[in-house]
Design a protein that fits this description.
This protein is mainly beta. The chain is built from eight helices and 21 strands. The chain has helices spanning 11-20, 25-28, 144-147, 178-183, 224-233, 243-248, 262-265, 344-348; strands at residues 61-62, 79-94, 97-104, 113-116, 120-127, 136-137, 156-161, 167-172, 187-193, 202-211, 237-239, 253-256, 268-271, 275-284, 289-293, 298-302, 310-314, 316-319, 324-330, 335-341, 352-358. The strands form four sheets. Strands 1, 2, 3, 5, 7 and 11 form a six-stranded mixed beta sheet that branches. It has a six-stranded mixed beta sheet with strand order 12-10-14-19-16-17. The chain has a five-stranded mixed beta sheet with strand order 13-21-20-15-18. It is globular, with a radius of gyration of 21 Å. The N and C termini lie far apart (63 Å).
């Protein structure tokens, strides 16, 4: 069943490979679009005529806008209601590079959800996509089989919970195969404030992730000059995600908040003397994030629920795929401070930004 490099598997080869990987038949519906001659033949879970992801009309390109990393304010009250919509979008993930993605509320990552420990949180999910989706919040203690269940296109679900612990948490689609749904862009951050607030700070949320594209080997555009040229001319290449690359964890791009190098090109700015707090969430789907700020040392890193979990004087700390941590320091030295995934191969692929400390 060996395939020549660059060739697409036939339906029979694909099914055999997926069977060996242990994928269920319903899960295969999300993947069959990559097989020769199969697009449009069958629907998901045996529904004739249902549209496959690869056969869907290409959605309009969502113009790139810098993902605002600032932690949104916590609204008054103790009840939080979030309306989340799953839908297909074509999003920019680097200068001149776009991906046909599955999204929450049209962006990768999805919206930042901020709540307080013990709040009543309601999640309303509506599926406007072309296949089944779900939403799994790592901040919840809840019956996952009910709350995080998959719903088909056109349906909705709701669930309510009270987060027992503060911290930085991931949310993501957990529909099988989870790797594909996260790799296609369905993730975001949940920030749970402790019941007793942390000291005042400039607070920022960075969701780290990797992107795997169905592009020829070596085509990933990581050269600064070429990237700037693509940005200036408006030239955009659009790609499908590559499930094969996801499985073997060979990313083409890596990013903080969904777009390679966006905070290098448009840095985060603070004033000298301000406390800076980064909420780092690692969406993966497989790769971790070794977070480091060049020229700084973290006064505290909260490994779990703050404030009791802090360690002090930290240079770099690994945030595992599926995890989240809180990093803070007082910006008492003016200048330009790169922040990176210190797994440097990933920093080179886009997970690099700048923090500017101004007088």
């Amino acid at each position: 069943m060996d395939l020549e490099k660059g060739s697409r598997p036939s339906r029979r080869q694909f099914l055999a490979r997926a069977s060996l990987a242990g994928l269920s038949l319903p899960a295969l519906g999300a993947l069959l679009a990559g097989c020769e001659g199969d697009r449009g033949e069958t629907g998901l879970a045996g529904e004739p005529g249902a549209e496959q992801p690869g056969a869907r009309p290409t959605s309009a390109l969502v113009p790139f806008t810098r993902y605002d990393p600032a932690l949104p304010p916590l609204e008054p009250g103790e009840e939080r209601v979030f309306d989340i919509v799953a839908r297909d979008e074509t999003v920019m993930i680097a200068n001149g590079v776009a991906m046909r993605a599955w999204t929450f509320n049209g962006t990768v990552p999805g919206p930042i959800l901020r709540v307080r420990q013990g709040d009543q949180v309601t999640i309303n999910l509506r599926n406007e996509g072309t296949i089944a989706h779900s939403i799994d919040l790592h901040a919840a203690k809840i019956d996952a089989g009910t709350a995080f269940r998959s719903i088909p296109p056109g349906e909705s679900l709701s669930y309510t919970f009270r987060p027992p612990y503060p911290g930085a948490f991931l949310y993501h689609c957990s529909t099988s195969p989870i790797l594909l749904h996260i790799g296609n862009g369905m993730y975001g951050a949940v920030i749970v404030d402790p019941s007793d607030p942390l000291p005042e700070a400039r607070e920022f949320v960075l969701v780290h992730s990797s992107f795997y594209l169905d592009m020829p080997e070596g085509e990933a555009d990581r050269d600064t000059t070429e990237s700037e040229r693509a940005s200036a001319t408006g030239e955009v290449k659009v790609y499908d995600p590559s499930f094969e690359k996801m499985r073997f964890a060979f990313p083409d791009y890596a990013a903080f908040n969904g777009h390679a190098f966006q905070y290098r090109d448009e840095p985060i700015r603070v004033k000298r003397g301000e406390r800076v707090r980064f909420y780092i969430v690692s969406a993966g789907p497989t790769q971790d994030c070794a977070f480091h700020v060049v020229g700084e040392i973290f006064d505290r890193v909260y490994l779990a629920a703050p404030p009791a979990s802090a360690i002090e004087g930290v240079q770099t700390f690994l945030v595992p795929a599926g995890g989240g941590m809180i990093f803070e320091f007082v910006a008492n030295v003016p200048g330009s401070f790169p922040f990176v995934n210190h797994k440097t191969g990933h920093g080179d692929k886009g997970s690099t930004g700048l923090l500017i400390v101004e007088e």
